[in-house]
Amino acid sequence: MSNDDDDELYRVLYTDAEGHEQLTGAMPLDAARSRAKTLEEQGYAVGSVMGDVAARGYMQDRYAPAYRGVDIPTDLRADGVPRSAFEAWKRGVDAELDKVEPKPAEQNPFAPDLSMSREVADYVLRATVGLLEDGYWPKAYTVESRYGGGDTEDYDGDMVRRAADIVGRDKIKHRGLLRYLAELDADAGEADR
Question: How far apart are CA 131 and CA 127, in angstroms?
Answer without folding.
Answer: 6
